[in-house]
Design a protein that fits this description.
The chain has about 625 residues and is α+β, with helices and mostly antiparallel strands. The chain has helices at about 1-30, 35-60, 70-75, 80-85, 90-110, 120-145, 165-195, 200-230, 245-270, 270-295, 310-330, 345-375, 385-405, 420-445, 450-470, 480-505, 605-620, and strands spanning about 505-510, 515-520, 525-535, 540-545, 550-555, 555-560, 565-570, 570-575, 580-585, 595-600. Strands 2, 3, 4, 5, 6 and 7 form a six-stranded antiparallel sheet that branches. Strand 4 and strand 5 form a beta hairpin. Helix 2 (about 35-60) runs antiparallel to helix 5, helix 7 runs antiparallel to helix 8 and helix 13 (about 385-405) packs parallel to helix 15 (about 450-470). The chain is flat.
C-alpha cells in the first residue's frame, strides 16, 4: 500500500507540473501573468510530493520490501542499513526519481524568488523549470518506474553491486546529481532573461547564486567520485579518463566558465551572450552525462542501464533541450544587450580568455570521449582514445589556466591605467616563483622534470599573487575575498598534486606469504598474518602488513556470495607526500599471494585541493558582496 502511494505521488508531480505548464503558456500567449500563483504553488507542491515519493522508496529499501522489482534487484536483507539507503540512487530507476525530486526542489527554489523578480520573468522561468520536472516525471513513470511490482515476489533480494558498497556511494551520486540538476535553474533563468522584454541585471545575481550552489556540489561529487574509484577499484589511479568520469567533467568545465562570466555580467554588463550560451551548454552537458550513463553507447565500470528505449528517450530530451535553449538564443540574439570589452588590460578580457580556455577544454574532452563511437558508427573500424590524448592536450590548457589565475587579479574592471607597472611587478613575482618552485622540487627529488616544475612555478605564482592582493585589502574585506582565494588555492594544490602524481608514482609486484618481507623505496613491508573474516554479506581474506616496523595497513579480498563477485579492497597508508597503496591479488598454487605495491605521489593533495575548491564555492553563497552597477560607458 505504501509503495502505491509513492507511485501515486510521482504521478501527481507529473500531472500537476503539466497543468502548470499549460496555464503558464496560456498566460504568456495573452501577454499577462494572472495565473502566476498557480505556477508558484505547483512548484512547491511538486517538491513536496517528489520528496514523499523518494522517501517511500527509501522506506521500502530499509524494510526489505521485495515486492518492488527495483528493491529486490538492488538490495538484500543482509545489506547494512546505510547501504540500503544509498541503494535508493544506486540503480537507474532510483537515480531518475532522484532527478525528478531535485528538479522539483530547484523549481521550488526559483518560486521562492517571487518577490525579487518581475511576474513575467518568473512565468518564463517557472515554465522552463516545470517543463524539466514534467518531462523527467513522465519519463520515470513510463520507462523507469521504481515502484514496479514483481510478478513473483522473491524471498531474498539480489543485493547491491559490490562495487557500490562503499561509503563513497552514499554521498558521491547525490552530490553529483545536485550539481548536475542545479544548473537547470541557471538554464531556466537564462531562458526567462531571453524571452522577457525587460532588461534587468538582477537575474544575473540570482543565476550566479544557483550556479555557485550547483558548482560546489558538482565539484564535491567529482572529487568524491575520484576518491571512491581510487579507494574501491584497487587500480591505484585517481582519474582514468573513463567516459562517465568525462561526462561529469564536461559541465564542471563550462560551469566554471559560467561563474566567471556571470560575475563579468554583474559588474560590467558584459559577456552576457557568453553567459546565456554557457547556461544552456552546462545543463545540456549535464543531461548528456545522464544519457551516457544510461544509454549503453559507451562502456564504463560506472555505467548502468543499457535499455535502448531509455537511451532514445533521453536523447530526445537532450535534443529538445539543445534546440530549445540555443534556438531561443539565435532567435532572440538581437535583443541581447551586452557591453563591449574596452581594454585588453582589464579583468573582463581575462574572463573572456578564461571562457575560451574552458570551452576548448570541454571540446577536447567531448572529442576524445565520443570520437571512437562516431568512428565506429561511420563504419571506419574501431579506434581507442586513451589517457595519452587527454594528458597531452589537457596539460598545456592547465598551465594557461594557472597563468591566467595569476595574471587576472593584477587588473581591474574596465581598464588599468598603470599596465606597465603591473607587468613589471608580475614579472618579478614570476621569477621568484620559478626559483621557489625549483627549490621546493629539488629538496624532494634529485631529478627535475619540466612539467611538474612548471606546475610548481605557476601554482606558487598564483599563491603569491593571492597573498599580495590580500595584503592590499583592508582586513574588513578579507572575508569577501576568501571564497575566490580558497577556490583558486584549491586549484593550485590539486594541480600540483596531479603533476607530481603523474611523474613520481612508482610500483612493483611481489609474491608474498605470511612472514615475507619486501623493500620498496623508503618502505620496509612485512606480511605479518592472514586473517579470514566474515562480514554481513561477504567473506574476506585480510592481509596484515607492517610498514617500517611501526605502521599497519590491511588490504583484503572480498567474496560476495549473492552476486558471486570478488572485490579487492586496497590497503592504503596516507602520508603528506603520497600514499603507500597495497593490493592483495589472487592466491597462488604454493599458498602465497600476488601483491601489487604502489607509491602514489602527492595524491592527498588532489583530494585536499578539491575540498578547498568546494569550500570556496560554499562560502561564496554566504558572503554578501556589494555589486556596483555601472553603465557600459562608465
Amino acid at each position: 500500500m505504501l509503495a502505491e502511494f509513492g507511485h501515486f505521488s510521482l504521478l501527481l508531480v507529473a500531472v500537476s507540473s503539466l497543468i502548470a505548464i499549460i496555464t503558464s503558456v496560456y498566460d504568456i500567449s495573452r501577454n499577462r501573468s494572472e495565473t502566476i500563483s498557480v505556477q508558484l504553488s505547483v512548484a512547491h507542491f511538486c517538491a513536496l510530493f517528489s520528496l514523499i515519493s523518494i522517501g517511500i522508496l527509501a522506506a521500502a529499501f530499509i524494510y526489505d520490501d521485495f515486492t518492488l522489482s527495483y528493491v529486490s534487484s538492488h538490495s538484500n536483507s543482509h545489506l547494512p542499513d546505510f547501504f540500503k539507503a544509498a541503494a535508493v540512487w544506486g540503480g537507474h530507476e532510483g537515480s531518475l526519481l532522484f532527478w525528478v525530486m531535485m528538479l522539483a526542489c530547484w523549481a521550488s527554489a526559483i518560486a521562492f524568488m517571487k518577490n525579487k523578480l518581475p511576474a513575467r520573468f518568473m512565468n518564463y522561468a517557472l515554465l522552463t523549470a516545470l517543463l524539466f520536472v514534467s518531462a523527467f516525471a513522465f519519463f520515470t513513470l513510463y520507462a523507469s518506474n521504481p515502484f514496479e511490482i514483481n510478478s513473483v515476489i522473491p524471498e531474498e533480494g539480489r543485493d547491491l553491486n559490490p562495487m557500490l558498497q562503499d561509503v563513497g556511494l552514499i554521498f558521491h551520486p547525490p552530490l553529483l546529481y545536485v550539481g548536475y540538476i542545479g544548473f537547470a535553474s541557471s538554464f531556466a533563468l537564462a531562458m526567462a532573461a531571453l524571452w522577457d522584454s525587460e532588461d534587468k541585471v538582477e537575474w544575473l545575481i540570482y543565476a550566479r547564486k544557483f550556479a555557485l550552489f550547483a558548482w560546489a556540489f558538482l565539484t564535491a561529487g567529482i572529487v568524491l567520485g575520484a576518491w571512491w574509484a581510487y579507494n574501491e577499484l584497487g587500480w591505484g589511479g585517481w582519474w582514468f579518463w573513463d567516459p562517465v568520469e568525462n561526462a561529469s567533467l564536461l559541465p564542471w568545465l563550462t560551469g566554471t566558465a559560467l561563474l566567471h562570466s556571470l560575475l563579468a555580467g554583474i559588474h560590467r554588463k558584459t559577456l552576457v551572450r557568453w553567459t546565456l550560451t554557457l547556461s544552456f551548454a552546462t545543463f545540456s552537458l549535464s543531461l548528456l552525462g545522464t544519457f551516457v550513463v544510461r544509454s549503453g553507447i559507451l562502456t564504463s565500470v560506472h555505467a548502468f542501464a543499457i535499455d535502448p528505449t531509455r537511451g532514445i528517450i533521453l536523447l530526445l530530451l537532450l535534443l529538445g533541450l539543445v534546440v530549445g535553449g540555443f534556438g531561443s538564443l539565435l532567435y532572440k540574439s538581437n535583443s541581447v544587450k551586452s557591453a563591449g570589452i574596452e581594454s585588453l588590460a582589464s579583468k573582463e578580457f581575462m574572463f573572456l580568455i578564461g571562457n575560451i580556455i574552458f570551452t576548448v577544454a570541454m571540446l577536447t574532452v567531448i572529442l576524445g570521449t565520443f570520437y571512437p563511437m562516431i568512428f565506429q558508427l561511420l563504419g571506419l573500424g574501431n579506434i581507442s582514445v586513451g589517457a595519452p590524448y587527454f594528458n597531452t592536450l589537457f596539460a598545456p590548457l592547465t598551465f594557461v589556466a594557472l597563468a591566467l589565475m595569476a595574471v587576472a587579479p593584477w587588473f581591474n574592471w574596465k581598464e588599468e591605467p598603470n599596465v606597465s607597472g603591473r607587468i613589471r611587478g608580475l614579472t618579478i613575482i614570476l621569477l621568484v616563483s620559478a626559483a621557489l618552485g625549483f627549490a621546493v622540487y629539488r629538496v624532494q627529488y634529485d631529478s627535475i622534470h619540466f612539467m611538474p616544475w612548471l606546475t610548481w612555478t605557476l601554482s606558487i605564482l598564483v599563491v603569491l599573487t593571492l597573498l599580495l592582493q590580500l595584503l592590499k585589502l583592508p582586513s574588513s574585506a578579507w572575508m569577501k575575498a576568501a571564497p575566490m582565494m580558497l577556490a583558486h588555492l584549491g586549484v593550485t594544490i590539486a594541480a600540483t598534486g596531479a603533476g607530481m602524481n603523474a611523474y613520481h608514482s612508482i610500483e612493483t609486484s611481489a609474491k608474498m606469504n605470511e612472514g615475507s618481507e619486501v623493500s620498496f623505496g623508503r618502505f620496509e613491508l612485512n606480511f605479518e598474518q592472514l586473517e579470514l573474516f566474515v562480514g554481513p554479506n561477504y567473506t574476506s581474506e585480510k592481509a596484515h602488513f607492517l610498514i617500517n616496523e611501526k605502521q599497519k595497513t590491511i588490504p583484503e579480498r572480498r567474496h560476495y556470495q549473492v552476486r558471486v563477485m570478488n572485490m579487492t579492497e586496497p590497503g592504503i597508508r596516507n602520508y603528506w607526500h603520497g600514499d603507500l597503496y597495497i593490493t592483495l591479488g589472487e592466491k597462488l598454487i604454493d599458498g602465497s599471494y600476488a601483491v601489487r605495491i604502489q607509491y602514489k605521489s602527492y595524491v592527498m593533495w588532489i583530494w585536499f585541493g578539491g575540498i578547498l575548491m568546494t569550500l570556496g564555492g560554499v562560502l561564496a553563497l554566504f558572503v554578501r558582496k556589494k555589486i556596483v552597477k555601472k553603465s557600459p560607458s562608465q
